Amino acid sequence: MARGRSPGYDDQREMILRHAAELFARSGYPATSMNEVAEACGLSKPTLYHYFRDKYNLLVHIADGHVSRLQALVEEVEARGLAPEPRLRELIHRFVEEYAEAQHAHRVLTEDVRFLKEEDRDRILGKERAVVSAFASALAQMRPDTEAAGLSKALTMLLFGMINWMFTWLKPDGELNYETMAPIVADLFFGGVPAVSMPALDSLRSRRA
Predict the structure, then answer these.
(1) Residue 138 to residue 140: CA distance in whole angstroms
(2) How many CA atoms lie within 13 A of 16 on its CB side?
(3) pLDDT digits (tens, 9 = 90+) for 27-36
């Protein structure tokens, strides 16, 4: 008869992933050892291996878990059936708030994805592309000429530039926090989008040719 998992098994796994993500984000995946992960978690190495078979397994779970949570946020917002602008605003708010708790995991996703095996990398980046596509779709519905000019994804990536790297300067114990900054990011983006002039279509076509 197979032995069941202890009541705290999932919580212990999440604790390990949090510590591993922080170590990977700070020192890089290649430079971090399982000994360091075990020490940061207050666990013995045999206990650590009971939860994760190796360092690569940790990397996959951190990156996949993070982007899967982002996907779930998109699905929750999409299910509300909001109009394009409120939908995009809600996505911005939810993502900024999520990053407040997932700074290290996000750094791992952006910087250590190159260490993933092709199959894992393709799966995880596929989820990431789906997330970006949801933002770009809401933007294109709000302002269709961005799609016609081939700019909806580019503008979306500029938006992610604001969201993704906020953790490099916004301090957890500072005067500003993510809850305060979320509507500011949305206002800044929406205040600027109407001012964007679309390039002439003939000019774009000639560059693509």
Answers:
(1) 5
(2) 26
(3) 999 999 999 9
Q: Domains in the chain, start-ordered, CATH in brackets?
A: 64-196 (1.10.357.10)
pLDDT digits (tens, 9 = 90+) for 106-136: 999 999 999 999 999 999 999 999 999 999 9
Helix, strand, coil percentages, rounded to 5, for the chain? 75, 0, 25
Angle between helices 178-192 and 152-164 (to 10 degrees): 150
Could you tell me if 112 and 59 are in contact, meaning their C-beta atoms sit under 8 angstroms apart?
Answer: yes
Query: 171-204: string of b/e by CB count within 10 Å (b at 16+)?
Result: eeeeeeebeebbeebbeebeeebeeeeeeeeeee
Distances in Å between the alpha carbon of 74 and those of 82, 90, 130, 147, 153?
12, 9, 9, 20, 16
- pLDDT value at position 117? 97
Per residue in 168-183, pLDDT tens? 788 777 788 888 888 9
Give the model's pLDDT for residue 121.
Answer: 97
Joined together, the tokens standing for residue 179 give 């809850």
Distance CA 17, CA 105 (A): 9
- Would you say how long the chain is, in residues? 209
Yes or no: say if 41 and 51 are a contact pair by the CB < 8 Å rule: no
- Cα 62 to Cα 57: distance, rounded to the nearest angstrom: 9
